[in-house]
Design goal:
This is Reverse transcriptase zinc-binding domain-containing protein. Residues 124-191 form the Reverse transcriptase zinc-binding domain. By secondary structure, the chain is of the alpha/beta class. The protein has 17 helices and six strands. Strand 3 and strand 4 form a beta hairpin.
Length: 417
């Protein structure tokens, strides 16, 4: 065990409960961040003794920002702001294995991580590919590409399926995934048409999984034309693959046509058929909640809508929420959100490693009735707008007693629906 302790240690994850046994500076209690001590000068760390996370929180459950705000980078402070501060009544802090969904250890995950797979990214990519609006066999192709299981000439040559590991398109000495999808002349040409020139290097520098995750997930900062970018990106990869196969396996290669034009035609055709299949909205509102429109809460019920947003360029995430019909009091509450994953986490309070489960369970057990429902994004516009416009200069939540001017029209629209 001692020989691999460093590998084990880097994959240990903390779940903060009461915050009494985790060291704020020296333990890596925020996933993907590592020990906060790494972000401050060594001389400053030398003056800081053991500091339980709970000692950095005041009696009202808020972080004591003044104790560390001046010394940590802004990005790290935003990560801390996203963690629920420990509570004296919460269970003890827990330590587990970061690779597992529930912080549980499994030999398979340990092997995958040891072999270099970033399981968390693959899991995330799978969810993004699952939502890809293209046809199923392009989805399958993207997943196989993501797992680097496409049989390229280097691998075919290793298995003696061919005697030549060269690229059939340009003659490059070893044809692998990076070459065909990023650096072969047709790929170079197509990306230079689609990507902003000064961002091309960064765009091509991402690893395959991260590349697919970022572009299918809506990161458009690289792109000249953001319309349907996830479809354009996915179908460009698909056409680069078909184009390569045309050269590798066809007796008369070279009649494939322009990859960009072919991709545009496919995306336009898909977009047309999606529009035709989309349900027609009634002209005068009145749609039921299941059809994706906000509806007034019942008499004596308070409705709370929440939403989250992520800035594709900076990676910063934010959230927002709105309570309506507060005069009804807080004894009967409907909580609505457009993330099915969030609804699942909030309802699954019996198990789970997330400390938020404990807080949700504690909140729900108070003397009120809470219903947690999913609503389509089109019915959650006010919360989504509040999330997108969250003020990240402020580390504590901002409260508005009345709607800020930039959501007023959406609030009125909801009432008239
Ligand atoms: Zn090539």
């Amino acid at each position: 065990m001692s020989t691999i302790w460093n590998v084990v240690r880097t994959n240990i994850g903390w779940t903060i409960g009461a915050g009494r046994t985790t060291d704020f500076w020296r333990d890596p209690w925020i996933d993907e961040v590592g020990p906060l001590a790494d972000y401050i000068p060594v001389t400053a760390l030398a003056t800081i003794g053991p500091s339980p996370v709970a000692s950095l929180v005041d009696d009202t459950g808020h972080w004591k920002w003044y104790l560390f705000e001046y010394i940590l980078p802004r990005d790290i402070l935003l990560r801390i702001a996203a963690v629920k501060a420990p509570s004296a009544n919460a269970p003890a802090d827990l330590v587990g294995w970061r690779g597992g969904r529930n912080r549980d250890f499994s030999l398979k995950l340990a092997y995958l991580m040891r072999a270099g797979y970033d399981y968390s990214i693959l899991d995330l990519v799978w969810k993004i590919i699952q939502k890809f609006p293209g046809i199923p066999h392009v989805k399958s192709f993207l997943w196989i590409l993501c797992k680097r299981k496409l049989m390229m000439n280097v691998e075919r040559s290793n298995r003696h399926f061919t005697v030549c590991s060269r690229c059939a398109v340009c003659g490059f000495v070893s044809e692998d995934i990076e070459h065909i999808f990023k650096f072969c002349p047709p790929a170079r040409q197509v990306w230079s048409e689609l990507i902003v020139p000064e961002k091309l290097h960064d765009f091509l520098s991402l690893g395959i999984s991260e590349w697919i995750r970022a572009n299918l997930g809506g990161a458009c900062s690289f792109v000249r034309n953001v319309e349907n970018w996830n479809l354009v990106f996915g179908y460009t990869l698909w056409n680069l693959w078909l184009h390569r196969n045309d050269f590798t396996f066809s007796n008369a290669p070279g009649n494939f046509g322009n990859i960009c034009d072919r991709t545009k035609a496919m995306v336009a055709s898909l977009d047309r058929s999606t529009r035709l299949l989309r349900p027609i909205r009634p002209a005068h509102g009145g749609a039921a909640i299941g059809q994706g429109q906000w509806s007034l809460p019942q008499h004596h019920w308070l409705k709370v809508n929440t939403g989250g947003a992520r800035n594709g360029e900076t990676g910063h995430a934010s959230c927002g929420g709105v309570g309506r019909d507060c005069e009804a009091g807080f004894r009967q509450v409907v909580l609505e959100m457009d993330s099915l994953e969030a609804v699942r986490v909030l309802k699954d309070t019996a198990t789970g490693y997330l400390s938020i489960n404990w807080y949700v369970k504690e909140l729900c057990s108070r003397s009120w009735t809470v219903h947690i429902n999913h609503i389509k994004r089109s019915g959650n516009n006010v919360a989504d707008k509040l999330a997108k416009n969250a003020n990240l200069d402020c580390l504590e939540p901002t409260f508005f007693a009345t709607p800020p001017p930039w959501v007023t029209s959406l609030v009125i629209e909801d009432v008239h629906n």
